[in-house]
Amino acid sequence: MDVLSDVLTTIRLQSALHFCPELSAPWGIKVSAQSDRAIFYMLSRGSCYLEVDGLTASAPLVGGDVVMLPHGAAHILRDRPRTRAIPIEKLFGEGCASNTPRAVQHGGGGEKSALVVGYFKFENQAASNFLASLPPLIHIRAEEGQNVPWLEATLKFLASESTSDAPGAQIIMARLSDVLFIQILRAHIAQCAKASHQCENKASMLRALLDPQIGQALKLIHQQPDHSWTVAKLAEQVSMSRTGFAVRFTQVAGIAPLDYVRKWRMQKASDLLRQGENNLDEVAIRVGYESGAAFSKAFKRETGVPPGLYRKEQALRS
């Protein structure tokens, strides 16, 4: 399994549509911050402006554009920069957290726009380290999306299903939303690769994946979390000096190599504990610890709770 797939499997992505508004100018919608989810918009028709809290410039969107707010920042969508925006709670009554897509009409009857809107939610703490490296806004323009295999087809399929009354439409949309999240990340990685100078100064997991040698080291760590990795062993595997590797890894990933190994082991262990299929000693061995006792001590130091209690808490939530 590749590194991105491994991360997303451990994060345990959930996704759904909020609503599918049909908008006519003038229109404006204000959305409050939602820190527990990433929000995405696909503008299937028309044009509008997106203003994200903390960003100075608004982003003009046209039909076919896709945007994602990885941290759920507060934002405003409107047909023109000066159009008054109303809170989404006022527009939809129960807010924008409904799992059932709804065709909603809003606006003054002028030029038409249409949005497919949804969210991506994550089940565990593993998401925080991954999402923290993403920018507040990812904007995939229509012409850029065409360069990512199946992104355009996924968006068209999603837009079609969002207005369908056919049996199974909701589950199809949920699965397509999962695919869409990965496609957006792929498109963002492609953007960074194309304009590497813009991503060069910011350490992140995505930047690390783009680095040939550090990306290979990450692949080794993810393929063998139970291996007794040292900085020297990882450096040797990617043909770098020990010091050069340690410095480069920290520069591009934003974390020291062995700190990443430790954190990833704990994230994999958390996932195994949640699944409940292995006893404590088996989990310990699978993430590189010689005994359940050593693993328990490390897990509590990292997460603040012993693994047995963590497993019970997760079972109660499910």
Separate helix tally? 15
Beta-strand content: 15-25%
- Which secondary-structure class do the elements indicate? alpha+beta
- Based on the structure given, which CATH architecture of the largest domain is correct? Sandwich
SSE series: HEEEEEEEEHEEHEHHHHHHHHHHHH
Name the helicity range.
Answer: 40-55%
The tally of structural domains comes to: 2
- How far apart are the first and last residues' alpha carbons, in Å? 26 Å
Strand element count: 11
In CATH, what is the homologous superfamily of the largest domain? Answer: Regulatory protein AraC
Strand order of the largest sheet: 9-1-10-3-6-11
User: How confident overall, as mean pLDDT?
Assistant: 82
Question: Rg from C-alpha positions?
Answer: 22 Å
Shape estimate: globular
Low-confidence stretches: 94-99
Highest CATH level, the class of the largest domain = Mainly Beta
Largest sheet report: 6 strands, mixed
